Amino acid sequence: xxxxxxxxxxxxxxxxxxxxxxxxxxxxEYRFLIDCGEGTQRQILKSGMGFRRLNRIxxxxxxxxxxxxxxxxxxxxxxxxxxxxxxxxYGGETTLQRVAELIYGVVFGGQRPGIPIDMYKLxxxxxxxxxxxMTLTAIPVIHRGAGCFGFVFEQASHRPFNVDKAEALGxxxxxxxxxxxxxxxxxxxxxxxxRPDDVLGxxxxxxxxxxxxxxxxxxxxxxxxxxxxxxxxxATYLEEEAEMAAAVGHITAxxxxxxxxxxxxxxxxxxxxxxxxxxxxxxxxAQEVFPNTYVARDFDHFVVARGKPVERLSRE
Length: 316
Ligand SMILES: [Zn+2]
Ligand SMILES: [Zn+2]
Description:
CATH architecture of the largest domain: 4-Layer Sandwich
Bound molecules: zinc ion
CATH class of the largest domain: Alpha Beta
Protein backbone atom coordinates (compact mmCIF):
# COMPACT_ATOMS: atom_id res chain seq x y z
CA UNK A 1 0.00 0.00 0.00
CA UNK A 2 1.18 3.50 -0.78
CA UNK A 3 -0.12 6.84 0.42
CA UNK A 4 0.35 10.18 -1.26
CA UNK A 5 -0.29 13.55 0.35
CA UNK A 6 -0.37 16.63 -1.84
CA UNK A 7 1.43 19.52 -0.18
CA UNK A 8 1.34 21.88 -3.14
CA UNK A 9 -0.58 21.65 -6.41
CA UNK A 10 0.03 24.96 -8.22
CA UNK A 11 2.11 25.55 -11.36
CA UNK A 12 5.03 28.04 -11.38
CA UNK A 13 3.59 30.49 -8.80
CA UNK A 14 1.38 29.84 -5.77
CA UNK A 15 -2.26 30.91 -5.59
CA UNK A 16 -4.38 31.72 -2.56
CA UNK A 17 -5.53 28.10 -2.53
CA UNK A 18 -2.56 26.19 -3.89
CA UNK A 19 1.05 25.97 -2.79
CA UNK A 20 3.97 25.10 -5.05
CA UNK A 21 4.81 21.57 -6.12
CA UNK A 22 5.46 19.09 -3.33
CA UNK A 23 4.08 15.67 -2.44
CA UNK A 24 4.79 13.22 0.33
CA UNK A 25 4.72 9.52 -0.47
CA UNK A 26 4.54 6.90 2.28
CA UNK A 27 5.80 3.53 1.07
CA UNK A 28 6.43 0.65 3.50
CA GLU A 29 8.79 2.07 6.14
CA TYR A 30 9.90 5.00 3.98
CA ARG A 31 8.65 8.55 3.67
CA PHE A 32 9.62 10.47 0.56
CA LEU A 33 9.25 14.11 -0.29
CA ILE A 34 8.83 14.53 -4.04
CA ASP A 35 9.80 18.08 -5.03
CA CYS A 36 9.92 20.93 -2.59
CA GLY A 37 8.52 24.19 -3.92
CA GLU A 38 8.70 27.40 -1.92
CA GLY A 39 6.56 27.18 1.22
CA THR A 40 6.68 23.38 1.52
CA GLN A 41 7.82 23.50 5.17
CA ARG A 42 4.65 25.20 6.27
CA GLN A 43 2.54 22.91 4.09
CA ILE A 44 4.10 19.89 5.85
CA LEU A 45 3.17 21.42 9.21
CA LYS A 46 -0.36 22.18 8.08
CA SER A 47 -0.81 18.68 6.68
CA GLY A 48 -0.13 17.19 10.12
CA MET A 49 2.26 14.68 8.53
CA GLY A 50 5.32 15.97 10.42
CA PHE A 51 9.00 16.07 9.45
CA ARG A 52 10.08 12.87 11.11
CA ARG A 53 11.89 10.38 8.86
CA LEU A 54 11.28 12.68 5.94
CA ASN A 55 14.92 12.49 4.93
CA ARG A 56 14.62 11.17 1.39
CA ILE A 57 13.94 13.85 -1.18
CA UNK A 58 13.21 12.98 -4.82
CA UNK A 59 13.39 15.79 -7.37
CA UNK A 60 11.61 15.61 -10.71
CA UNK A 61 13.67 18.48 -12.15
CA UNK A 62 15.42 21.69 -11.22
CA UNK A 63 12.90 24.43 -12.01
CA UNK A 64 12.52 26.86 -9.16
CA UNK A 65 8.86 26.08 -8.47
CA UNK A 66 10.02 22.55 -7.54
CA UNK A 67 13.18 23.19 -5.50
CA UNK A 68 13.19 26.62 -3.83
CA UNK A 69 11.62 25.28 -0.63
CA UNK A 70 14.66 23.07 -0.05
CA UNK A 71 16.65 26.02 1.26
CA UNK A 72 14.29 26.64 4.15
CA UNK A 73 13.48 23.00 4.81
CA UNK A 74 17.11 21.93 5.05
CA UNK A 75 17.98 24.93 7.18
CA UNK A 76 15.28 23.79 9.61
CA UNK A 77 16.40 20.16 9.53
CA UNK A 78 19.96 21.17 10.37
CA UNK A 79 18.89 23.26 13.37
CA UNK A 80 16.36 20.74 14.59
CA UNK A 81 17.61 18.95 17.69
CA UNK A 82 17.12 15.17 17.77
CA UNK A 83 15.58 15.42 14.34
CA UNK A 84 16.91 14.20 11.03
CA UNK A 85 20.36 12.58 11.06
CA UNK A 86 21.09 12.95 7.38
CA UNK A 87 19.41 13.93 4.15
CA UNK A 88 19.42 12.08 0.84
CA UNK A 89 18.58 14.06 -2.28
CA TYR A 90 17.95 12.29 -5.59
CA GLY A 91 17.77 14.13 -8.92
CA GLY A 92 19.27 14.65 -12.35
CA GLU A 93 22.72 16.21 -12.71
CA THR A 94 21.65 19.77 -13.50
CA THR A 95 18.98 19.63 -10.80
CA LEU A 96 21.55 18.64 -8.19
CA GLN A 97 23.94 21.36 -9.37
CA ARG A 98 21.27 23.97 -8.79
CA VAL A 99 20.31 22.48 -5.43
CA ALA A 100 23.97 22.42 -4.39
CA GLU A 101 24.28 26.13 -5.21
CA LEU A 102 21.17 26.83 -3.17
CA ILE A 103 22.17 24.75 -0.16
CA TYR A 104 25.92 25.14 0.01
CA GLY A 105 26.14 28.61 -1.50
CA VAL A 106 23.12 30.37 -0.04
CA VAL A 107 21.90 28.43 3.01
CA PHE A 108 25.28 27.46 4.46
CA GLY A 109 27.32 30.25 2.85
CA GLY A 110 30.29 27.99 2.23
CA GLN A 111 30.23 26.50 5.76
CA ARG A 112 29.85 22.78 6.29
CA PRO A 113 26.25 21.77 7.03
CA GLY A 114 25.75 20.26 10.48
CA ILE A 115 24.32 17.00 9.14
CA PRO A 116 25.36 14.86 6.18
CA ILE A 117 23.65 15.76 2.93
CA ASP A 118 24.12 13.09 0.27
CA MET A 119 23.23 13.85 -3.32
CA TYR A 120 22.54 10.96 -5.66
CA LYS A 121 22.72 11.65 -9.38
CA LEU A 122 19.95 9.79 -11.16
CA UNK A 123 20.21 8.16 -14.54
CA UNK A 124 17.20 6.84 -16.47
CA UNK A 125 15.81 3.61 -14.99
CA UNK A 126 17.95 3.77 -11.86
CA UNK A 127 16.50 1.69 -9.04
CA UNK A 128 16.55 3.91 -5.96
CA UNK A 129 15.23 1.36 -3.48
CA UNK A 130 14.53 -2.32 -3.84
CA UNK A 131 13.66 -4.55 -0.91
CA UNK A 132 11.23 -7.33 -0.08
CA UNK A 133 8.33 -4.89 0.07
CA MET A 134 8.80 -2.55 -2.86
CA THR A 135 10.83 -1.14 -5.73
CA LEU A 136 11.30 2.56 -6.47
CA THR A 137 12.56 3.41 -9.96
CA ALA A 138 13.49 6.73 -11.58
CA ILE A 139 12.11 6.98 -15.11
CA PRO A 140 13.15 9.42 -17.85
CA VAL A 141 10.76 12.29 -18.54
CA ILE A 142 10.96 14.88 -21.34
CA HIS A 143 10.31 18.42 -20.10
CA ARG A 144 12.70 21.35 -20.58
CA GLY A 145 16.39 20.56 -20.32
CA ALA A 146 18.07 17.24 -19.57
CA GLY A 147 17.75 15.10 -16.49
CA CYS A 148 14.01 15.22 -15.73
CA PHE A 149 12.55 12.22 -13.93
CA GLY A 150 9.36 10.56 -12.79
CA PHE A 151 9.13 7.98 -10.03
CA VAL A 152 7.52 4.53 -10.09
CA PHE A 153 6.63 2.89 -6.78
CA GLU A 154 5.83 -0.81 -7.11
CA GLN A 155 4.82 -3.08 -4.30
CA ALA A 156 6.34 -6.57 -4.57
CA SER A 157 4.00 -9.18 -6.00
CA HIS A 158 2.94 -11.95 -3.66
CA ARG A 159 1.25 -15.35 -3.63
CA PRO A 160 -1.50 -15.68 -1.03
CA PHE A 161 -1.21 -18.54 1.49
CA ASN A 162 -4.16 -20.93 1.27
CA VAL A 163 -4.92 -21.85 4.90
CA ASP A 164 -7.56 -24.44 3.97
CA LYS A 165 -5.13 -26.31 1.73
CA ALA A 166 -2.42 -26.15 4.38
CA GLU A 167 -4.78 -27.55 7.03
CA ALA A 168 -5.91 -30.34 4.70
CA LEU A 169 -2.27 -31.28 4.05
CA GLY A 170 -1.51 -31.26 7.79
CA UNK A 171 0.88 -28.29 7.79
CA UNK A 172 1.03 -27.10 11.42
CA UNK A 173 0.62 -23.40 12.13
CA UNK A 174 3.88 -21.67 13.01
CA UNK A 175 7.28 -21.15 11.38
CA UNK A 176 6.87 -23.92 8.78
CA UNK A 177 4.12 -21.91 7.12
CA UNK A 178 6.48 -18.97 7.00
CA UNK A 179 9.03 -21.14 5.20
CA UNK A 180 6.48 -22.13 2.58
CA UNK A 181 5.53 -18.48 2.05
CA UNK A 182 9.25 -17.73 1.65
CA UNK A 183 9.37 -20.33 -1.14
CA UNK A 184 11.03 -23.17 0.78
CA UNK A 185 9.66 -26.77 0.94
CA UNK A 186 9.09 -28.37 4.33
CA UNK A 187 8.98 -31.98 5.53
CA UNK A 188 6.21 -33.11 7.87
CA UNK A 189 6.95 -35.54 10.77
CA UNK A 190 5.60 -38.43 8.65
CA UNK A 191 8.14 -37.66 5.92
CA UNK A 192 5.70 -35.99 3.50
CA UNK A 193 7.33 -33.10 1.61
CA UNK A 194 5.10 -30.05 1.11
CA ARG A 195 6.17 -27.65 -1.62
CA PRO A 196 5.26 -23.94 -1.79
CA ASP A 197 3.15 -24.62 -4.89
CA ASP A 198 0.95 -26.93 -2.78
CA VAL A 199 -0.25 -24.10 -0.53
CA LEU A 200 0.35 -20.82 -2.39
CA GLY A 201 -2.15 -19.26 -4.79
CA UNK A 202 -1.54 -17.48 -8.09
CA UNK A 203 0.83 -14.52 -8.04
CA UNK A 204 -0.94 -11.19 -7.40
CA UNK A 205 0.77 -8.02 -8.62
CA UNK A 206 1.44 -5.32 -6.03
CA UNK A 207 0.07 -1.80 -6.12
CA UNK A 208 1.75 0.57 -8.59
CA UNK A 209 1.92 4.32 -8.12
CA UNK A 210 3.58 6.54 -10.75
CA UNK A 211 4.40 10.17 -9.95
CA UNK A 212 5.44 12.38 -12.85
CA UNK A 213 6.18 16.07 -12.52
CA UNK A 214 6.38 18.54 -15.37
CA UNK A 215 6.37 16.84 -18.76
CA UNK A 216 6.10 17.85 -22.42
CA UNK A 217 5.15 14.55 -24.10
CA UNK A 218 3.47 11.35 -23.02
CA UNK A 219 4.17 8.75 -25.74
CA UNK A 220 7.46 7.59 -24.21
CA UNK A 221 5.82 7.20 -20.79
CA UNK A 222 3.25 4.55 -21.78
CA UNK A 223 5.45 1.50 -20.99
CA UNK A 224 6.42 2.90 -17.59
CA UNK A 225 2.89 3.87 -16.64
CA UNK A 226 1.31 0.65 -17.96
CA UNK A 227 -1.32 -0.86 -15.62
CA UNK A 228 -0.61 1.58 -12.78
CA UNK A 229 -3.21 1.70 -10.03
CA UNK A 230 -2.61 5.42 -9.79
CA UNK A 231 -0.94 7.97 -12.06
CA UNK A 232 -0.09 11.42 -10.74
CA UNK A 233 0.88 13.88 -13.47
CA UNK A 234 0.80 17.55 -14.34
CA ALA A 235 -2.03 19.26 -16.22
CA THR A 236 -0.72 22.78 -16.59
CA TYR A 237 -2.70 23.62 -19.73
CA LEU A 238 -6.07 23.02 -21.32
CA GLU A 239 -6.50 21.74 -24.86
CA GLU A 240 -7.29 25.22 -26.27
CA GLU A 241 -3.68 26.15 -25.36
CA ALA A 242 -2.12 22.90 -26.64
CA GLU A 243 0.36 24.73 -28.90
CA MET A 244 1.55 26.90 -26.06
CA ALA A 245 1.84 23.81 -23.82
CA ALA A 246 4.02 22.03 -26.38
CA ALA A 247 6.18 25.12 -26.85
CA VAL A 248 7.04 25.28 -23.14
CA GLY A 249 7.36 21.56 -22.43
CA HIS A 250 4.04 20.98 -20.66
CA ILE A 251 0.91 18.95 -21.41
CA THR A 252 -2.83 19.53 -21.33
CA ALA A 253 -5.41 17.85 -19.11
CA UNK A 254 -6.62 15.93 -22.17
CA UNK A 255 -3.14 14.63 -22.96
CA UNK A 256 -2.73 13.46 -19.38
CA UNK A 257 -6.07 11.68 -19.58
CA UNK A 258 -5.16 10.09 -22.91
CA UNK A 259 -1.97 8.70 -21.36
CA UNK A 260 -4.00 7.21 -18.49
CA UNK A 261 -6.40 5.62 -20.99
CA UNK A 262 -3.65 4.31 -23.29
CA UNK A 263 -1.68 2.80 -20.40
CA UNK A 264 -4.66 1.10 -18.70
CA UNK A 265 -4.33 3.18 -15.54
CA UNK A 266 -7.00 2.77 -12.83
CA UNK A 267 -7.03 6.27 -11.31
CA UNK A 268 -5.62 9.55 -12.60
CA UNK A 269 -4.73 12.46 -10.31
CA UNK A 270 -3.85 15.77 -11.93
CA UNK A 271 -1.69 18.41 -10.30
CA UNK A 272 0.53 21.44 -11.21
CA UNK A 273 -2.61 23.45 -11.96
CA UNK A 274 -2.20 26.88 -13.53
CA UNK A 275 -3.80 29.84 -11.81
CA UNK A 276 -5.35 30.69 -15.17
CA UNK A 277 -7.46 27.53 -15.25
CA UNK A 278 -10.47 26.68 -13.13
CA UNK A 279 -10.29 23.33 -11.37
CA UNK A 280 -13.61 22.22 -12.88
CA UNK A 281 -12.39 23.02 -16.40
CA UNK A 282 -9.30 20.86 -15.92
CA UNK A 283 -11.36 18.02 -14.45
CA UNK A 284 -14.06 18.16 -17.13
CA UNK A 285 -11.55 18.12 -19.97
CA ALA A 286 -9.75 15.07 -18.53
CA GLN A 287 -12.93 13.20 -17.57
CA GLU A 288 -14.19 13.33 -21.15
CA VAL A 289 -11.31 11.00 -22.02
CA PHE A 290 -10.68 9.29 -18.68
CA PRO A 291 -13.64 9.44 -16.26
CA ASN A 292 -11.81 8.28 -13.10
CA THR A 293 -9.87 11.53 -12.73
CA TYR A 294 -9.27 13.72 -9.69
CA VAL A 295 -7.75 17.18 -9.68
CA ALA A 296 -5.61 17.28 -6.54
CA ARG A 297 -5.99 20.05 -4.00
CA ASP A 298 -3.45 20.93 -1.34
CA PHE A 299 -3.63 18.44 1.57
CA ASP A 300 -5.52 15.81 -0.41
CA HIS A 301 -4.47 12.39 0.88
CA PHE A 302 -4.92 9.29 -1.27
CA VAL A 303 -4.37 5.60 -0.51
CA VAL A 304 -3.24 3.28 -3.30
CA ALA A 305 -3.71 -0.38 -2.35
CA ARG A 306 -3.42 -3.62 -4.27
CA GLY A 307 -6.61 -4.56 -6.06
CA LYS A 308 -8.69 -1.73 -4.59
CA PRO A 309 -9.91 1.57 -6.01
CA VAL A 310 -7.78 4.54 -4.99
CA GLU A 311 -9.29 6.10 -1.88
CA ARG A 312 -9.32 9.82 -1.12
CA LEU A 313 -8.97 10.13 2.65
CA SER A 314 -9.28 13.79 3.38
CA ARG A 315 -9.35 17.26 2.04
CA GLU A 316 -9.26 20.66 3.63
ZN1 LIG B 1 6.71 23.28 -12.53
ZN1 LIG C 1 9.29 22.69 -14.91
